[in-house]
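Subject: for your reference before the review

Hello V.,

The reviewers asked for a structural picture of the protein, and I figured it would be easier to keep everything in one thread rather than splitting it across files. Below is the amino acid sequence we used in the manuscript, unchanged from the supplementary table.
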Amino acid sequence: MSFLIGLAAGGFGGFLGIGGGIIMIPLMVHFFDLQQREAHATSLAALVVTGVIGTITYALHGSIDYVAAVLITVPAIGTARAGALCCHRMTDWKLRRFLGGFLLFVVAVMLTKAYLVPVHAPLAGWGRIAALLGIGLFTGFISGMLGVGGGSIMIPGMVLIIAMTQICAQGTSLLSMIPIGATGAWTHWQLGNVRRDILPGLFGGIMAGSLAGATVAQYMPDALLKGAFCVLLVWLGLRYLRSRAPTGGDIAPSGN
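And here is what came back from the structure prediction:
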């Protein structure tokens, strides 16, 4: 089952250019009965593989801004750890609410992705550096807390604020995802949140799904699949946003 979950996540990620965490997390909670923070942590560990595969592909085509990737990654490493620690201390119902809001944000980005244009002339010098550092600070925390790669935040930020091309923003985002995801995943690993027994299956499924999804994307229109996927995310997002505290009270997780 873990291989199939990874296959679905990798396939959607390769086809639509999104992170697989938003697919893996609900499926792992449903089929493996994981706690919400365990699903977030395990997803983040698996997404490092997605970042490696995607980065190699974009690097071969020269579609990565390495300086921008470093400027995003440096602050994000610190905030990714903070986000993972925050995730560990939050109750499941609160994590579901945050995830629900993020899913609706992803839908908005997907529907407007083709229309993203810079809001001003390309930034340069210290302005560009400050913008990239700010993107990294925010992305790292969200990635560590929600178990996602952060591309849905990084890519619009680089396109709209930095005036980077869409293709270069995607490649830069994938490269940054590797150290950001690894930092958050390692923190979760130390806290005992990563389900190590299902990681091998997720890795294999993601690798196969990413290659298949990226290949299919070259030969068929994505309007129908993207529409159905957005409907699914809206349904999940609204469902998670309605999560309520258990009747027994808001009990914080035990542990570190």
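For the response letter, the relevant points are probably these. The chain has ten helices and no strands. The chain has a mean pLDDT of 80.

Happy to draft the paragraph if you're swamped.

O.
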